[in-house]
Every structure is written in structure tokens, then in C-alpha cells.
Amino acid sequence: MVVESTERKESDLRKLEKRISKSKTSALDQLKKLLDSKFNSRDCAIKAVDNLKKKFKYHQIDNINYLEKESKDKKLFYQVNASLSENIHAIKKRLQGAGRFILATNILDEKSLSNDDMLSEYKAQQSCERGFGFLKDPLFFADSIFLKSPERIEAMAMIMGLCLLVYTLAQRQIRKALSAAESTIKNQLGKSVNNPTMRWIFQCFQSIHLVEYDHQILISNLTEERKYILSFLPENCRYYYKC
């Protein structure tokens, strides 16, 4: 099934525009080097042009002329004179594919899985896939773990799945609380948002310590901002920050 998304199309078109612009800058530089080059024969010049054509994805070489010239020591050489233009056919092909993607399944009976159901299932699994983005995050050191036996790998996968469940539930909880209170907290950029990531919340609570001083147990670095964030978490979470 071929799916076209309006939102994805807008994103793809913006990316394509940037790629074409970047490609043009590179193509002009390469063409300039070619035009400045001197070739011993016409065949060498033709071969150089053909090789350069293959490198261009969104552009093409036009108005090609092979000029025979004579050096100061009376030796003949060839130079290329040409211009650059957009490859309309290649760009049009990319434009047609913008915002489109293919969904495939081995369930061929439409009664068991309709096109709408297939799309819904695909969208539903994205939330789970996004959760495992932490595997690439250096903060969690996932790439530094090495396990020998399949049993240990399975056990680690189970632990990671449970951790992801807790992480997702906590993130859902604080976002719901912020939305219900019509409140926001500041993200990494200092912008007020009502959908912070739990990763950022964890970072906000770094450097909080339990300190024993003069026979008293105190919590250090529990700022007003951190207390404010705590107010959107359940009582069983706030309990650990009380003395």
C-alpha cells in the first residue's frame, strides 16, 4: 500500500530544496575545475565530461563545447566550455515521491487487515519505536554493555523493557499533569513547554544529594524550580524529597 502524508510531504519538500541547493554549490565547484582543466585530446575531454555527468544527481551539463587551443610552446590542448542547469526530470521524479511511503504486510486477506487497519497498526508501533531511541543516547551507555550468553541478553532486554515502561508512564504522567494545570516548564533551550521529555526531567534532578549535618538529614540543591517540577509528579515520587 502506498501512503501519502501531507505533513511528511512538506517536510520532504523542505529537505529536497536544501539538498538541491547544496548539490548546486558542489556541482558548480566541480564544473569550474573541469572548465579550468587542460586535456591532451578531445577524447580525454569528452571522457572527463561524461564522468562528471554521472556524479550529478539534480543537475546536468549543457551547452558543451570542446575548444582546441594552442599553448605558448605551440602544443595543442583541449578545454571544455559548458554551463550548468537543473535536471528537471530527476527533480520532478523526487517531487512526485515526496511524502509517500510504502507499507507492506504478509497478511493478504483484506478482511483480516484492511488498508485503514494497516495504517493504524503502523502508526501505533511508532510510539514504541520512539521509546527505544534511548539505545542511541550516550547518556544511557547502552553501547558499552557486552553480554555473552543469550540468556543474559534476554534478561537485559526484559530489564530494559521494564525501564522503558516506567520511563514512558512517568513522561505521560507529567505531561498530563501539566496539561490539566495549563502549566509549563522550561526545556533545555529555556522555552516553556507542556510536553517535556523524561530525559530532561532526569537531568533537572541531577546533583541533588542527601546530606547528614549536625545530626540532621538534609536535601541539598532542591531548588524552587525543582520543587515546582515535583508538584506535577505523584505523591509517592515527592515522598523521596521530603526530610
Strand order of the largest sheet: 1-4
Order of helices and strands: EHHEEHEHHEEHEEHH
- Structural class by SSE content: alpha+beta
What amount of the residues lies in strands? 15-25%
Assembly level: single chain
Our Rg estimate from Cα atoms comes to 30 Å
Low-confidence stretches: none
Helix count?
A: 8
The number of distinct β-strands equals 8
Percent range of helical residues: 40-55%
Return the average pLDDT rounded to an integer. Answer: 88
For the sheet with most strands, the description reads:
2 strands, antiparallel
The coarse overall form would be elongated
Report on this model:
- There is one protein chain.
- This protein is α+β, with helices and mostly antiparallel strands.
- Among the domains are: 2-97, no CATH class; 197-241, no CATH class.
- It has 8 helices and 8 strands.
- The strands form 4 sheets. Strands 1-4 form a two-stranded antiparallel sheet. Strands 2-3 form a two-stranded antiparallel sheet.
- The two termini are 59 Å apart.
- The mean pLDDT is 88.
List keywords for this structure.
two-stranded antiparallel ribbon; 50% helix; 243 residues; elongated; 8 strands
